[in-house]
Design brief:
3 helices, 13% strand, 79 residues, alpha/beta, 3-stranded parallel beta sheet, single chain
């Protein structure tokens, strides 16, 4: 966790502006302790599904710190 914390600090130092929502991908790090540790260190969560979104919210992340970015694609129909 020390290494992870140092990486979070480096990220926030490189991009300190308030309009950034630095986030950890739930798909890559679904373990509740890791997500909660990241949240305590100022990170949000990036969810690729409603289930991941619910998981993040159930861990206490604020809704405005959860990004739902679905990888689902739609078929383009030319009319």
């Amino acid at each position: 966790l020390d290494f992870f914390e140092s990486r979070i600090s480096a990220l926030k130092a490189a991009f300190p502006e308030d309009f950034f929502n630095h986030s950890v991908a739930i798909k890559a790090n679904p373990i509740r302790g890791i997500i909660q540790f990241a949240a305590r260190n100022g990170l949000g969560a990036e969810a690729a599904s409603i289930c991941e979104t619910i998981h993040a919210l159930s861990l206490g992340l604020e809704a405005n710190k959860v990004i739902l970015g679905s990888p689902c694609k739609t078929k383009v129909i030319n009319i």
